[in-house]
Amino acid sequence: MKKNKKIFNLLKTMLKTSYDTSGIIDSDTKKLNKKSIKVWIIGLVFVITIYLSYIIINSLKEIGIPNIFLDAFFLLLQILVMFQTILLVINVLYFSKDIENYLSLPISSRKLLITKFSVMLSIIFGVQIIIFLPSLFIYGVRTFQDILFYPLTVIVLALVSIFLSTIVSIVMIFVMRLFRFIKSKYLYQNIVILVMTIIIFLPVINVLNISNISLDSQITVENQAYNEETREYETQAVQQIRTMFKTVKDTNKCFIVTGLGVKALSDINFNTIIYILEILGLDLLAIAIFLSIGRFTYIKDILWNLSMFDKKKNKKVKLYKRCKVRNKNYAYFRNEIKAIIKNPTYFMHYIYNILIVLISIVGFTATIFPIVVQAIIDVGGEEVFNEITFGFGEFSFIIGLIQVMFTLSSLSLTAISRYGKNAIFFKYIPIKFSTQFRLKNMPQLIMNTIIVIIILGTIHYLIPAINNLYILLMFVISMLLNIINTNILLILDLLRPNLNYENEITVIKQNDNKLFQYILTVVSCLIIWYLKEITKETNLNTSIIIEMIVFSVIVIGMEIFISKKSNRLFKKII
Predict the structure, then answer these.
(1) 3-class SS at 380?
(2) Fewer CB within 10 Å, N or C, the chain?
């Protein structure tokens, strides 16, 4: 009993340091602070999740296949949980800043491992309460599930997440030890993250490749098997959607527990309890293996990391290289890039995740989209595409889509905050504040430019009929929006910096300014829509020129403002 109490007290201490509730909970009333931006961000994500789930489930109900939602849901769940676990194992288990404090206490390896793992799970569950649980509840309401569906949903969601996190954590233990020969801490962490991503998604990619190869033949066979009775109830389009979602089911089979989760919630009956007990058994087995391995390796690995990466080495100093005169602006910019790439937390959230999304878009375009196009042609004929026109409305929609994609990146939004208390040194660097402002915006500009190129390249591939001139004009307008976005986000960070954070995750996850980025996206899209409405009577070229002039004027105005007010903008860095 005393052992459990010690673990519980240790867990409470770790949770207090892991969760920053300042602003969310009113310090005086101890109640939810409705004026806090953090509360509004959580509420906004919650509402968006419910709205999107409602639309998707209704669409699937209209074509008579709402159960497909569960398969797609659990596929998305396992991807997110495994990604979270990879990051949390590195940032919570092995490289957390409080780990040295706990090592000095009389705590056994097993207790420390259990507590740290519990903190990981609490973070994962927190995300699920906001994103995944509402989606399943909406599914239960729209499909008229029994009242037992809702408590069972919570249980299944928790058990599935525990299993996935535990399995990934077991693999991470071996991967962390495998790459211990790498002497650079940052390179070590980034390689571990990359290898783990490949290990996890290799079976998924394999299933997708097999399914894509056989998809056309399956569709042909199923179409030939039609009879008059089937055609009354199921169109070709619906059957092809079923075939595509079969790929999702095959992918879920790679991870046994997610398949059991789908079965448990598909039809609530006596078998549901059996499926839940099976998942529970797998959880207990996985946790037992994890604790058995970690008991003997965890403390050793942490001590090795501390001794290896904190050890100061005597390196030969190359005086010519060290004293070589460099362009100070180039050195400043290079330092910005290195600060992002060398930190695994920033690298994963600001670069790696975005690249994964862009690669997924390109992969979908190259594999699934041709099948969808063929399905549309089979149903409606090639004449369907002849009815598609390209006007200023379509032009504006693409620009708006690119603006929405800009929300993936928040480099400028934390350009100052991620330096913490060290940000004060920017005041003493012999570079003008206006120049520093532009140099700090460069990483965000480069990342957004990659997004623009990928999106426009994908659109050009999908719709080759669009004139190359319009693709070029879309690029120009997108870059104007890119400059506007990065400037406003950096101004926000300068006006409302968070310089007293405990760790890197706090800067990213608990950033009050993130809400303003969403508001900026909404305002930009409304401006694009307004310009489309007031130019209805004008031709396409004139409308594009007007839009370009409007955004150019905004950019010029902002550049003048930055040049004149840059000293005031940096005033809050104290």
Answers:
(1) helix
(2) N
| DSSP state letter for 407 | G
DSSP symbols for 77-132: HHHHHHHHHHHHIIIIIIS-TTHHHHHTSS--HHHHHHHHHHHHHHHHHHHHHHTH
Please list the ranges in the chain whose pLDDT falls under 70.
1-7, 15-38, 63, 181-190, 200-255, 308-326, 367-389, 501-507, 509-510, 574
Q: What is the per-residue pLDDT for 201? A: 65
Question: Is the separation of the CB atoms in 133 and 157 below 8 Å?
Answer: yes
480 in Cβ contact with 402 (< 8 Å): no
- How many other CB atoms sit within 10 Å of the CB of residue 331? 13
Residue 314 dihedral angles phi and psi, to the nearest 5°: -85, 105
Strand partners, 32: 25
- Radius of gyration for the chain, computed over Cα atoms and rounded to the nearest angstrom: 26
Count CA atoms closer than 13 A to 78's CA, side-chain side: 28
Q: 3-state secondary structure string, 140-180?
A: HHHCCCCCCHHHHHHHHHHHHHHHHHHHHHHHHHHHHHHCC
At residue 255, φ and ψ (nearest 5 deg) are -120, 100
Distance CA 14, CA 98 (A): 9
Q: Give whole-number Cα distances, 359 to 72, 76, 365, in Å.
A: 19, 16, 10
- In angstroms, the CA 416 to CA 440 distance is 8
pLDDT tens figures, 415-436: 888 887 777 888 788 888 888 8
> Side-chain half-sphere of 363: how many Cα atoms within 13 Å?
10
Q: How many helices (H) and strands (E) does the chain have?
A: 23, 0
Predicted TM-score (pTM) of the model is 0.60
